[in-house]
Amino acid sequence: MKIEILNALDAKGLLRELNASSAKLQEAENFLKLKAPTKKSEAYRYFDTSFVDKDYKIYQPKEPIFNLGKELVIQNGSLVGIVDGIEVEVKEFEDVDYEHFDPLYYLSHLLTPKAIVVRVTKDAKFNINHIITEDSSLIAYRVVVFVDANVNATIYDTLTNSAKDSLVLAGYDVFCARDANINFVTNRSYDSSTIVINSNRYKVDSNGNINLYTFDFATTNALTLFRSELNEYANFEAKHLLYTKKEAKAGTVSQIVHRGKNSTSNQNARNILDNTSRGIFDALIKVEPTGKYTKAHQNSKAILIDDGAYMASKPQLEIYIDDLEASHGSTTGQLDKAQLFYLQSRGIKKEEARKMLILGFANEIIDSIEDKEISEKVHISFESAYYDIPKIECLQTCDTCL
C-alpha cells in the first residue's frame, strides 16, 4: 500500500481500503481533512516525506502472548510480554483525540483494530520495550496508558529495531487522572533504514502532572509528534535531547494546549547536530480563552558540530487571553569559542575540549531525570551514540570514555 493514494478516497472508501471498522468513520474523515503528509504539510515541512510514495505491505499483528517478565514487550505491534502488577488488555479503543494536528495519528488508529491498553492502578515503575523485526512492512499500532487518580507512575520506553526498509506508525494515548503523576522517559536510537514516526497524545486532568523526557539519537530519519491537553491546575514538563548525524532528519513536532485555568507547562529542547543531519523542533503552545493564569515557557538550543548540519527551530505561541505568563526562545550556533579557549589553556586538547562541552550540554537534560537508574541508562545510550561505540562499560567520568 502507498499512503499517498489514500488521499484520493472518500471516508467510507478509506475504511474499506484499510479494512477498518465503520466506528472509525471520524478518524477517516479527519485523516482526509489533513491529508497524507507532503513537503507542504505544516507538521512535516522539515521532514523527508518520500515514505508516502513507497509501497509497503501492511503487517498484520499476531495474537497477544501474555508472558510474564521484567518489562512490557511489544514486537511488531503485538503484545508478547507483560509485567506483574500492571493491568494490560488488547481491545478496541474509541477515545481518540479529534483535535490532533497529525494525519498519521489518525492513520495509525485506522490501521489498528485493537490497541494495547495499559492501566496503572497503584504506584509503579516499569519498562516498555518496542521490538521491530519485519522488513519492508508498514507496522501500525497504538498503546493506551491510563494512570489512575493519586497514582505515581514511572515509565521507561525503549526501542530495539533490526528491520530494514519498513515504516512504523505508532504512538501513545496517555491519560493522567486527577492528582496523578507520570514520569515518562523515552530512550530511542534510530540506526536502521526503517522510518519510525511516533504520534502521541497526552491528556492531563485537574492537578495532574506529566514529566516527559524524549531522548532521540538518530543516524536515520525519525520523528516524534505529540499533542498535550491541560485541564485546570495541570502541569506538563517536556524535555528533549536530540543527537543526529550522517544525513538523518529527526526531531519533535508538538502542540501543548492550555485549556484549564492555572495550568503550567515548560518545554526545553537541546539539539546536537553533526555531519549533514537536520534537527527539528517545531513546537506550539496554545492558550485558549478558558486558560486564565496560565504559565507557559518554551526554549530550544542547538549546537551545530559540522558546517553541513541544519537546525529547523520554530517555537510558537498562540494566545487568546491576557492573564498569563508566557515566553519562548530559540538559539542555534556552534560551540562557545571562549569556553574552548579556556579548556585548551588548561592543557586540554581541542578535540577533547569539544567533547567535554558537548557532553555537558547534553547532561543538562539527562541529569534532570530524577530516577538515577534511568538517568544512567540514558547516559550510556547517548555516549554510545556520540562515540559510535556499541556498548560503554564504564561511565565514571567523561575522561574514561575518551
Descriptive account of the structure:
It is a single chain. The protein is of the alpha/beta class and 402 residues long. It folds into two domains: 3-334, no CATH class; 335-402, no CATH class. It has six helices and 21 strands. The protein has helices spanning 11-18, 25-34, 103-110, 337-345, 350-366, 372-387, and strands at residues 57-58, 68-69, 72-75, 78-83, 87-91, 115-120, 124-132, 137-147, 152-161, 167-176, 181-190, 195-204, 209-218, 222-230, 235-244, 249-258, 264-273, 278-287, 294-304, 310-319, 324-333. Strand 3 (72-75) and strand 4 form a beta hairpin. 45% of the residues are buried.
Average predicted confidence as pLDDT: 94
Oligomer type? single chain
Number of H/I helices: 6
Order of SSEs, N→C? HHEEEEEHEEEEEEEEEEEEEEEEHHH
The largest sheet is: 11 strands, mixed
Radius of gyration: 21 Å
Low-confidence stretches: 392-402
Report the portion of residues in β strands.
Answer: 35-45%
Instruction: Report the principal-axis shape.
Output: globular
- Find the count of extended strands (DSSP E, 2+ residues): 21
Query: N- to C-terminal separation?
Result: 47 Å
Protein topology:
Layout lengths: L10 H8 L6 H10 L22 E2 L9 E2 L2 E4 L2 E6 L3 E5 L11 H8 L4 E6 L3 E9 L4 E11 L4 E10 L5 E10 L4 E10 L4 E10 L4 E10 L3 E9 L4 E10 L4 E10 L5 E10 L4 E10 L6 E11 L5 E10 L4 E10 L3 H9 L4 H17 L5 H16 L15
Parallel strand pairs: 1-8, 2-4, 3-7, 6-8, 7-9, 8-10, 9-11, 10-12, 11-13, 12-14, 13-15, 14-16, 15-17, 16-18, 17-19, 18-20, 19-21
Antiparallel strand pairs: 3-4, 5-6
Helix pairs in contact: 1-2, 2-3, 4-5, 5-6
